[in-house]
Design a protein that fits this description.
459 residues, mainly alpha, Sodium/glucose cotransporter, 23 helices
């Protein structure tokens, strides 16, 4: 097992060192010279979005709430690829024309408001730090399973330090090229894990029938705990479509495309991979009931199933694949956040960005040590923090790109009112009518944007 881990980290650091020699100027470091072709862009978008959520959260939620998890994740996330073109094409074009590097620069460029730029970027940074820390937490779980003498928090800190080192070395090129490597590992690992578990349980049909006989409600909606209602399905469908492109690590990838063709290819391929890949951890999570695996923490169910029913070599490869999913997201988040803070506050200076990267990693470690609630789980933590905070930004960016009447006052009011709903919903019980609170925040921010923009519009 240790050989797999050492080889994996050796490749990552080698790519980081090689990339540092290729990053000759700030645009190379921050955006890989805006030169990612179709294949690299597709892999970096996919790997960046496959996170702790994918290898740990999906199976864990399926274990507790059933097969509805596949519909919630695969449907909305597949349709989210449309935004690669709806938002990504415009962002790529404007970035190429004006030299934009951070998301907020588009807001300032259109509305001539430095305050709006800082508000937009500030929200991205604030709500992405918990997501970044979750990647480290997931890595801590993995290392703890592989090496019980390493605690979850200690493992999380070790992985965060490793990520910081190769991100500092090579910037966006390192993140993009490692994403291709890590994407291949995680896809191979998940497929092999599924096949070996299915074989050990007597085949796909037998494993599914046994789980159905053990708990039939896993195979129906709304599931054993009544979680997957129509309102919840619609909530997640809209959440993935409008929140995912607001992840800074996704948004920044739009700037890196070599051409419009790169974005189109990524948009076509992404749903094909998602619809297949997301099914595997969900099925494994459900099979755990029929296999009668002892599960203390649902987020670890996939790893426990692989450990129990796959050969040691496949278990080791799956652990590395899970680490790849976590680290491919975390490195992109760390780089995109440091890019935003450096370019907005200190200017486009690579050395300052390296310092900011280390500072952000320290904040993530503090969240790991003090702020993570293991009872909420990976999915619960993100649904309550990152996703609602970022979905509020989508009305203002869409209006900025496509609506001539949108102005800075409408965008600022939209963001602030939406975040006020996010804050209140975390403190008091607001009426949501069965939907996620994030949907109420999205609705309020959209209505406020339209009303304020119309009221303050000047020709």
């Amino acid at each position: 097992m240790i050989e797999f881990i050492l080889f994996y980290f050796a490749v990552l650091f080698a790519i980081g060192i090689y990339s540092s020699r290729k990053s000759k100027d700030p645009e190379d470091y921050f955006l890989a010279g805006r030169n990612f072709g179709p294949l690299v862009l597709f892999f970096t978008l996919a790997a960046t979005n496959f996170s702790a959520f994918t290898f740990l959260g999906f199976a864990g939620k399926a274990y507790t709430d059933g097969l509805g998890q596949y519909g919630v994740m695969a449907l909305g996330t597949s349709f989210m690829a449309i935004m690669f073109y709806v938002i990504g094409r415009k962002v790529w074009k404007m970035g190429k024309e004006h030299g934009y590097i951070t998301p907020g620069e588009i807001m300032e460029g259109r509305h001539e408001s430095r305050a709006l730029r800082h508000i937009f970027n500030g929200v991205m940074v604030l709500f992405t730090i918990p997501y970044l820390a979750i990647q480290a937490i997931g890595a801590g779980f993995i290392l703890n399973i592989m090496f019980p003498q390493i605690s979850v928090k200690a493992g999380a800190i070790l992985i965060m330090v490793a990520i910081t080192l190769y991100v500092i070395s090579g910037g966006m090129k390192a993140a993009g090229w490692t994403d291709v490597f890590q994407g291949g590992i995680m896809i191979l690992a998940m497929i092999l894990a599924f096949l070996f578990i299915a074989h050990s349980l007597g085949g796909v049909e037998k494993a599914s029938i046994t789980s159905y006989e053990t708990m039939p409600s896993l195979f129906s909606r709304p599931g054993p705990n009544g979680y997957f209602t129509i309102q919840m399905y619609l909530s997640f469908f809209l959440l993935w479509i409008f929140a995912d492109p607001m992840f800074p690590q996704i948004f920044s990838r739009f700037y890196t495309a070599k051409s419009e063709k790169s974005l189109k290819v990524a948009m076509y391929l992404y749903p094909l991979l998602i619809s297949f890949f997301f099914l595997l951890p969900v099925i494994i999570g459900i099979w755990a009931h029929g296999a009668a695996v002892s599960v203390d923490n649902p987020d670890s169910v996939l790893l426990l199933m692989v450990k129990e029913y796959a050969p040691p070599a496949i278990f080791s490869l799956t652990m590395v694949g899970a680490l790849a999913a976590l680290m491919s997201t975390a490195d992109s988040q760390l780089l995109s956040l440091s890019t935003i803070l450096t370019c907005d506050i200190l200017g486009k200076r690579v050395n300052y960005s390296r310092i900011i990267t280390a500072v952000l990693a320290s904040f993530a470690i503090v969240f790991v040590v003090l702020g993570y609630d293991p009872k909420a789980g990976i999915m619960g933590t993100l649904v309550k923090t990152t996703f609602p905070g970022l979905v509020v930004l989508s009305p203002s960016i869409l209006a900025t790109l496509y609506w001539s009447r949108a102005n800075k006052w409408g965008c600022i009011a939209s963001i602030l009112s939406g975040e006020a709903i996010v804050f209140l919903s975390s403190r008091i019980s607001l009426p949501t009518f069965g939907f996620l609170p994030a949907m109420i925040a999205l609705l309020v921010s959209s209505v406020v944007l339209v009303m304020v923009s119309i009221l303050t519009f000047k020709k």
